[in-house]
Specification:
Number of helices: 0
Oligomer: single chain
Shape: globular
Order of helices and strands: EEEEEEEEEEE
Radius of gyration: 13 Å
């Protein structure tokens, strides 16, 4: 059974940093492209970043490029999102996604506020 569990969210001040984790189980994690998405209150869910199966290729939404870094540890079946220089508009529930067969985690709340 595919399972994706996000963690690491919380309340942070503008300009601060957080690192999100996505722990995967139930499938061969190292063989799949993985992604991060987010959904702010009252808005549609949006793409944040994606990483290739071996971790060699990444892609980012324009709104986070240069501030966020996606990475993965295939030995430990975990994906990460390092978020720096956070802004209030980054406030959202952040979701881990395996695009193949469209699997999602339950999300973790990130709130950027002073």
């Amino acid at each position: 059974q595919v399972r994706l569990v996000e963690s690491g969210g919380g309340l942070v001040q503008p300009g601060g940093s957080l690192r999100l984790s996505c722990a995967a189980s139930g499938f061969d994690f190292s063989s799949y492209v993985m992604s991060w998405y987010r959904q702010a209150p009252g808005k549609e869910r949006e793409f944040v970043a994606t990483i290739s199966a071996p971790g060699s290729d990444t892609n980012y939404a324009a709104s986070v490029k240069g501030r966020f870094t996606i990475s993965r540890d295939n030995a430990n079946n975990t994906m990460y999102l390092q978020m720096n220089s956070l802004k209030p508009e980054d406030t959202a529930v952040y979701y881990c996604r395996r695009p193949v067969f469209d699997r999602w985690g339950q999300g973790t709340q990130v709130t950027v506020s002073s």
